[in-house]
Amino acid sequence: MTAILVGIFFAIFGGAALQRISGMGLGLIAAPALSVLLGPVSGVLMVNVLATINAVANTYSMRERVDWKRFAPIAAALVLGAVPGAFLIRAISTDLLLIIVGVLLLIALSTVTMGKRYIPNIEGTVPSVIAGTVGGFMNTLAGVAGPSITVYAHAARWPKEIYAATLQPIFLVGGAVSFAIKEATGAANLAAVTPQTWVVGIIAMVLGIIVGTRVAPRVPVNLAYRIALSLAIFGGFTALVRGLVGMLSA
């Protein structure tokens, strides 16, 4: 149990710090790690809750750079993807869910890292709603809304100065919606995560925010972003392999 708590601490700490620097990180790093350490249902639920709290702090500190008009249609669409995601969690096995989490992460991250240059310029409400719907589905199932929103933001040519800030309230709504729908549908249970684990997670997140805030001026955003993506890819592979091993050994 101690080793698991240590792993949880560093995953959340690193994710929270990198998110404060680059705009993304907590879900990318913690979701695959906690899916493996706690199981995909409890792990992603914990990420949803912590991501919401983390996004509250980041939204407040970055509020002057948030583009609320760009935020609104994406946030409203998150629930459209969250509902089917919650019902899917109830319908499939843990091992299959781990595989889906891993595959979704790897596809999304591959698109973000290698496919952005091929994405055409898009405008309008419909693409933002689609991005929000996909983000809500992935956030509920895998704890990561960021990749789909990042692809859309790149295609819509969001200015860099508002990108990281506008992601924060989107993550806030996404985490809260995913958590609420899971609880309402019985897809996950907050009590399944032990109090000790919550304490470790919250401490790690707070320390990550503090450290991230202090080092942000000295760390290039692109470097922090690449680190987060690299760790997330590793986590996605880990979740995928663990799910496959579980299914093959069943």
Automatic annotation (TrEMBL):
GO cellular component terms, A-Z: plasma membrane
Main location: membrane
Family from the record: Belongs to the 4-toluene sulfonate uptake permease (TSUP) (TC 2.A.102) family.
Keywords carried by this UniProt record: Cell membrane, Membrane, Transmembrane, Transmembrane helix, Transport
UniProt subcellular location: Cell membrane
Domain of life where this protein originates: Bacteria
Any matching Pfam family: TauE
Topological relation to the membrane, as annotated: Multi-pass membrane protein
This protein's name: Probable membrane transporter protein
Transmembrane segments: 29-51, 71-90, 96-114, 126-150, 162-181, 188-211, 223-245
Native species: Corynebacterium riegelii
